[in-house]
Structure formats: structure tokens, C-alpha cells
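Practice problem: predict the structure.
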Amino acid sequence: MRKSEAKRLIDEAYEAWNAEEWLTAAGLLEQVLAHYPDEKRSAVWWYDAALAHKFLRNWAKAYELGREAAARAPRGEGDPAYWNLGIAATVQRDWATARAAWTGFGIELPDGEGEIRGRFGPACVRLDTGGEREVVWIDRLCPTRGRVMNVPVTGGRRFGEIVVHDGEPKGHRVVDGHEFPVFDELLLFEASDLPTLTVTVNAGEAADLDALITLFVEQNYGAEPASSLNVLCACCSEGTHEQERTVHAGAQSVSLAAPEPEARRLLDEWAGEALPGRSWSGLEPVA
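Answer:
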């Protein structure tokens, strides 16, 4: 391929890129890279081709091209080629490559081999399942995976599932003066076997509801009162939102994540503590 032909294809690739025609853009870049893998601009072309496949959720190609991009990127300087490779390698469950990518980016990982199960702190993820969007809290296990710590109200989503999220925050939540990023979900990595249930509880005081939540959390289950949910428009959700805990007393629906027999046992334990105003009814599974 002549360099003049390569230049024409590169120009066409970025025209397609600007039109968000990711498959066309990646294909044209790959044509050029087959002949010019190590030109001065090749590292950028490898990166963009991998990124286009990331946008397409074609993780095998994002992984393949991402390895080439990272091989041409400086280590320890926060180069995004390593971050995108880390995501793609995680999705492919190639833990050795994922570990090498994160350390190449400049992130310190817990010692060991295989799957990364670290403590990277709390963050939020915007779940997206067929157009429904819900922001939930996660406990980050690695730079791109987190365990869902809320009981989602979005159909088909569950407490305890592990999701892969993007690296660029799309919004922030501020709690008690501390700011936490909101990432977009890329995919469901590991499902949870804990069913979602709903129950109507009556709590004489807010402290009674807190006691119920604590009872479930101590057993590694989840409890989410309706009064704790906030509805935001898309614009506000992707901005910086100060979040206050709003758990109220009185009768309300609570979403639970627990096996039904365990949920009944814990609800009976909570209601049977001889404190006035505590009761529950109508425990039902959520389809």
C-alpha cells in the first residue's frame, strides 16, 4: 500500500469516526495498520481502532487491538491505552493481561495472580438494561468491576451482582461532603443468585427502619426502603448531585435481597423485638 493510499484511508476512517460509524472507522484503520503497524502515528491508530470496537462492545477485537496499542504506549504514565486494554482483558477474563494493563497505567494492585479481588472503595454505576437507567452503589473490586450494594428496582437486576463499568465518570454523588464518581455500566459480569422480594413494613420511627436494614446487611443481604430512592432527570443524573439519606418512618414498601425463608425469619425477628410500631405484611417475590 502506498502512503498516499494510506493517507486517503486514514482520512476516510476519521470521517467515519466523526459520524460515529465505528465499524467502518475501525476497518479502515486496520487496513492501514496491516501495512504500517509502527509508523509515528500508528500507536494512535491502534488505540482508536480498539476504542471503536469498545464502543461496539466487540470485546474480542477491543482486546486484540488494545494489546497492540498498549505495546506502543509508555508505562506508568496513565496512558488510556492501558485502561481500555484493562477493561477488554477483564471482560475476556485474561487476568494476567488485565493485571499488566492496570500496572502499566500506573495503578497499584493487591499482590497475587488471577482474578483481582481488591478494595478500591465505593462508587456508583448507572445500570442500563434496555433503556431503563438506575444509579446504584457498588463496592469496587478492581479498576473496572464492582459488586452492586443496593437492591435495584430495575427489572432483572439484583443485589450482589458484579458489573463491569467504564472508566470515565458521567456524574458524581456527594455524600457528607465526600464526592463519588458515577460510571456507566458496560456489561453484567457475574449474576447474583439472591432473589428480589418486596414487603410492606410499618416502622414507628426511622431508627426502626435502620434496624431492619442493619439486620439484613449483617447477613450479607440487602434492604432498600422506597423512601431512600431519588428520581432524577438524565441531565441531573449526569451532573453533580448532593445525596442525603432520606429514610422515613411509617408504612412503606421495602425491596429485599435474600432467600424468601431467610427474609421471613429476619422480618419476624425484627418485628418481634417487643418495640411498638413494628410490623410487616405482603412479602412477595419480584419477577
